[in-house]
């Protein structure tokens, strides 16, 4: 079996990815495919922490939520991420992967409360740990939650699964001449205002010196390729 470059990683999945072509809710076929990708990579012997967003159910900055204050919409988003994490857990366990969901918002009937030492112990037992509920605090995105959990579990890399194949100097969906940046520094990512992750997440990763690898989740086998050290996507370090 090939050797992974990393022993422990934090994988950040967007909630939008779970919706597939529907654009809303959970597409079971998409979640099943993602679980298969994670299983294939997990079989390399890598310890996996996963943070999942909730954007397939709710976008906190959506104009349709203008009557609801920001704090409330952020808590709604945390609960949406719990739904996605439970769906991913079910799909992973159907694939024979032992998992635990830990939530920053306590819902003891369906998930463990987030306890760092317990999470690390699960990882050491080769269980995939899925972190739900963001940071548990409003005004912080699940990107920031991913950077925080990566630091707390001593992950060697933060894998940012995206709908594009890396970081570009402008939006490739709008600008056909956008250039892909294979390597860039944290400061370059911050100063250029690139929307790959929010500034808080990038700043925290810079402080903890955890590299961020941005890649296209839609390409089959990309998670495994990243772990094997192949040139996939873009690296912020």
Number-wise, the strands total: 11
H and E order: EHHEHEEHEHEEEEHHEHE
- The number of domains is 1
Secondary structure class reads alpha/beta
- Which sequence of strands runs across the widest sheet? 4-3-5-2-1-6-10-11-9
- Say what the CATH topology is: Carbamate kinase
* CATH homology superfamily name: Acetylglutamate kinase-like
Task: Report the major sheet.
Answer: 9 strands, mixed
What is the highest CATH level, the class? Alpha Beta
How is the topology of this model organized?
Elements: E1 8-13, H1 15-19, H2 28-42, E2 47-52, H3 70-94, E3 99-103, E4 112-113, H4 116-124, E5 128-132, H5 142-152, E6 157-162, E7 167-168, E8 180-181, E9 183-184, H6 186-191, H7 199-208, E10 212-216, H8 222-227, E11 234-236
Parallel strand pairs: 1-2, 1-6, 2-5, 3-4, 3-5, 6-10, 9-11
Antiparallel strand pairs: 7-8, 10-11
Q: What can you see in these coordinates?
A:
- By secondary structure, this protein is of the alpha/beta class.
- The protein has a single domain (8-236), classed as 3-Layer(aba) Sandwich (Carbamate kinase), CATH 3.40.1160.
- It is 37% helix and 19% strand.
- It is built from eight helices and eleven strands.
- A nine-stranded mixed beta sheet has the order 4-3-5-2-1-6-10-11-9, with helices on both faces.
- Helix 5 runs parallel beside helix 7.
- The mean pLDDT is 93.
